[in-house]
Amino acid sequence: MTQIEEVNYEQYKHLVSERAFTGETMLLNMGPQHPSTHGVLRLLLELDGEVIVNAVPDIGFLHTGVEKNMEAKTYLKAEVMSDRLDYMNNLGNNLAYCMAVEKLVDLDVPPRAQALRVILVELQRIASHLVWIGTFGLDLAAMSVFLYAFREREQLLDIFELCSGQRMMTTFIRPGGLWRDVPVEFETAVRNFLKIFPKRVDEYEALLTKNPLFLDRLLGIGKLDAATALQYGVTGPMLRASGVKWDLRKARPYMGYEQYDFDIPVRTEGDVYARYLVRVQEFRESMKIIEQALNKLPMGPVRSANYKFVPPPRSEIGVSMEALIHHFKLWTEGFSAPKGSVYSAVESPRGELGVYLEGDGGPKPHRVHWRTPSFSNLSVVPKIVKGHLVADLVAILASTDIVLGDIDR
Amino acid sequence: MDQKLEPIVKALQEQFGATYEEFRGEVHVFLTAEQIIEALTLLRDKFDFELLSTMTASDYYPQRSPRFHVIYQLSSLAKNVTVQLRVPVDGDQPKVPTATRVYEAANWREREIFDMFGIEFEGHPDPRRILMPEGTEGHPLRKDFPLGYEEPQFTFNFEEIDLRKPYAKE
Lengths: 409, 170
Known about the structure:
Helix content of chain A: 40-55%
CATH class of chain B: Alpha Beta
Number of domains of chain B: 1
Oligomer: heterodimer
Number of helices of chain B: 4
Distance between the termini of chain B: 60 Å
Number of strands of chain A: 8
CATH class of the largest domain in chain A: Mainly Alpha
CATH architecture of the largest domain in chain A: Orthogonal Bundle
Structural class of chain B: alpha/beta
CATH topology of chain B: Beta Polymerase, domain 2
Radius of gyration of chain B: 20 Å
Strand content of chain A: 5-15%
Low-confidence stretches of chain A: none
Mean pLDDT of chain B: 86
Order of helices and strands of chain B: HEEHEEEEHEH
Order of helices and strands of chain A: HHEEEHHHHHEEHHHHHHHHEEEHHHH
CATH superfamily of the largest domain in chain A: Cytochrome-c3 Hydrogenase, chain B
Radius of gyration of chain A: 23 Å
Shape of chain B: elongated
Largest interface: A-B, 46 and 40 residues
CATH topology of the largest domain in chain A: Cytochrome-c3 Hydrogenase, chain B
Mean pLDDT of chain A: 88
Largest sheet of chain A: 3 strands, antiparallel
């Protein structure tokens, strides 16, 4: 039972400067219900007039105990929770988790499944960046981009629905491959999207990139240099906007990323505008990857034939005794993973999304830890907002592209 | 083992008498709590491990000694290698020195580990809980912490259950 306790004043003293106690600066509470905090993030701001002296993020409002819950489920059932972490990058989370499981139990993934995974997570990256560009515009009073971006995102969600029956919480990528093969309409749907989307990106750019009002709000705001970014564990577009060419898709290719030809957009300014430019460029790079993957999409199975870990196809269950046994074992007890731990990371739209997975020989994971990029990316915000105006804080926060579900887990 | 990792592991072995394990191509180096800061500094300064990707812990309850492992996942961008350091910690009053002065990224991660496992980080600049609300009892990710559940309320017992629910009422 929660009891109301006296707040120990000494415990919080170090969070603000001395001037807050004399009343020289003002303490202002921003959030948790604030449209520009992108979820339920609370910020305690210490203000000297309009200027931010200190910002103290308070997170955990969306904490759902995903890591604890995953320990209580079998490896297959735990995957469902992964969708719910970063709700803008569902397929990417599935991929990170499945890659960790595959590494732990040493499971193969057929080439067709690998290529489809790449297409799906790149589509997801575009969808995530679309939400970002929409809300970014919205925070900076560019309302129209939001409406256009969500129009295109709808098309992507339709593609996900076509494959998996779900718009967001897909759980489509499974350990050992995919849940099932994509339908025949998939290729046309993706190609249609690829046909219209380059023009749409040009449209967003026409609205924003050279817009003087937009530039005034962004240029030179929230500067982050490469050394600080690395110190704070910042990854993804934020790190690349600070001049570090680091992308796990290139550095440690997974799922056959090495066969696709694409660039990593890098800027050196490290301000909010550079982050915007990097992400907009990533739209185009993702399209390149999808097109190449679609052009040489191999035929074949989409799930591993190792039925100790992957459920056999429905058609086999009626005719094969082993298939039936495997099916029964997998959906009741689940498969057992060996004792040991693996760390597997993918490049999510926000940065390095890693899964630390530890098995104890049984059918349930001993420990699942999610290294979520938003968590690290937010931790640097108090550092870079110092000396900026409250209005700039909104721009900086929007440019970090945080997802609170990703932070709080 | 990755060839680029060999000199790094060798240096850790020579300087700290560390042992290591290999699993699925990943190298886990075991160090003690007293050595960890020195080891992290060595890795950062001499071997270009610029990025502390993540920090976490794992609970081996009911085993008492060591009950926890504190895990440091390090990445080197220049060399493109990763290494994992593990610090076994005993069950009663687990304490590890803070790595905040080596990697700023450890600040929030250590707060999370303290919150979830109750492992204290000595010298941490901001030792508060991070995810759970202030005043929470216990540390949720410990294995002896129950998963918990919510009693489903129906029309006939709605108020009865409502009375013992722990949320704030007006």
